[in-house]
């Protein structure tokens, strides 16, 4: 999407964007601060028991009129987990490209947010609470695009893929196949997760942390451990966790759980929105709002994501032709499937066939 790490005007954005990397903002930082990776930057700026590194203060983002508020990063060295916390108002548009390799990312957006380029696919800001879990093999990247006027309240983790299994007892056999593929780093993959009530409460407490220094470190350690425990519970049965602990009413939460099951089990020929609403006992409008407010995407967007993820998995297995895959995921016209696939992944289905 962007051609160089500098001030530029992307074709999709008419305003100038400060192209920013962590830890460098090329326009504002002294030359010696450029070109540092996150590890080197963190080691250079972190001191024992100082709490999170405060990027807004470090880079003078408020004084430069770019943002107001909080943008902190911290690493829990015991688990080698890195965390970012954002509670800010964007005054001038900017983008943050983050190169990543052999890592899992979890992005939890409570309100506002930014457009994301994740696994080669754009995840536009919906303004709704949402969470994205993604796998990043060698030489991957994430880009966050912040627009002027955005109010962002979110937190994210970078997690070593073996950590959840080795240190938190995640049983991959109990996870849905899409989750297993992410944990195993089988290519660049992403899935949308519900933000449960417990997760939302924990994230609010983390973002609003009242401590500094050593007490902040101890508090963040506890919260990261809690976060990872809640994540493991969610990954083993996301629909069930969604039903048991979601800020929606019990009726709507049960309805959304049922809809997710119906869509997952009928990827090729799902019921239409009117029939879905009738099956779960909600109006079409109420169902659509409840689904989007919980997953951050529409039902059709969720279905498309599941179809494309399954299609790529089948193509890479080499067991089906492109035509067979298109039929399996609900496209009778191979050309229509090819166009949808290229729009989603930015390359043709043929490129995902085994060499």
From TrEMBL:
Q: List UniProt keywords, sorted A-Z.
A: DNA-binding, Transcription, Transcription regulation
- Identify the InterPro entries for this entry: Homeodomain-like_sf, HTH_AraC, HTH_AraC-typ_CS, PchR_regulatory_protein
**Metal-binding in keyword set:** no
Q: Name one Pfam family in it.
A: HTH_18
Write the protein's name.
HTH araC/xylS-type domain-containing protein
> Where does this protein come from, organism-wise?
Kineobactrum sediminis
**Record keyword Metal-binding present:** no
Phylogenetic classification of the source organism: Bacteria, Pseudomonadati, Pseudomonadota, Gammaproteobacteria, Cellvibrionales
Stored Gene3D superfamilies: Homeodomain-like (1.10.10.60)
The GO molecular function terms of this record are:
DNA-binding transcription factor activity; sequence-specific DNA binding
Domain of life from the UniProt record: Bacteria
Family matches, as PANTHER family? REGULATORY PROTEIN PCHR (PTHR47893:SF1)
Domain named HTH araC/xylS-type: residues:
257-355
């Amino acid at each position: 999407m962007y051609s160089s790490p500098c001030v530029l005007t992307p074709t999709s954005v008419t305003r100038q964007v400060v192209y920013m990397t962590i830890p460098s903002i090329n326009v504002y930082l002294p030359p010696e601060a450029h070109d540092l990776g996150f590890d080197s930057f963190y080691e250079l700026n972190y001191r024992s028991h100082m709490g999170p590194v405060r990027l807004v203060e470090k880079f003078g983002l408020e004084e430069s009129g770019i943002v107001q508020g909080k943008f902190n990063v911290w690493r829990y060295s015991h688990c080698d987990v890195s965390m970012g916390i954002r509670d800010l108002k964007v005054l001038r548009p900017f983008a943050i490209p983050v190169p990543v390799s052999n890592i899992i990312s979890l992005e939890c957006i409570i309100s506002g947010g930014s457009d994301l380029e994740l696994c080669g696919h754009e995840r536009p800001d919906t303004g709704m609470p949402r969470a994205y879990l993604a796998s990043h093999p060698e030489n991957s990247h994430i880009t966050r695009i912040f627009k002027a006027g955005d109010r962002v309240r979110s937190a994210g983790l970078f997690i070593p893929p073996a950590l959840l299994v080795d240190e938190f007892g995640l049983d991959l056999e109990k996870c849905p196949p899409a989750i297993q593929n992410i944990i195993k780093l089988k290519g660049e993959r992403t899935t949308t997760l519900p933000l449960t009530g417990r997760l939302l409460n924990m994230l609010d407490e983390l973002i609003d942390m009242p401590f500094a220094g050593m007490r902040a470190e101890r508090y963040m350690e506890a919260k990261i451990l809690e976060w990872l425990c809640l994540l493991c519970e969610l990954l083993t049965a996301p629909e069930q966790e969604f039903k048991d602990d979601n800020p929606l009413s019990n009726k709507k939460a049960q309805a959304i759980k049922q809809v997710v099951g119906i869509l997952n089990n009928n990827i090729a020929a799902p019921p239409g929105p009117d029939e879905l609403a009738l099956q779960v006992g909600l109006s079409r409008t109420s169902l659509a709002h409840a689904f989007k407010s919980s997953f951050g995407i529409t039902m059709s967007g969720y279905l498309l994501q599941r179809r494309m993820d399954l299609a790529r998995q089948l193509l890479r297995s080499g067991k089906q032709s492109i035509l067979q895959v298109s039929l399996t995921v609900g496209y009778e016209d191979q050309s229509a499937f090819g166009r949808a696939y290229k729009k989603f992944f930015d390359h043709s289905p043929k490129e995902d066939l085994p060499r």
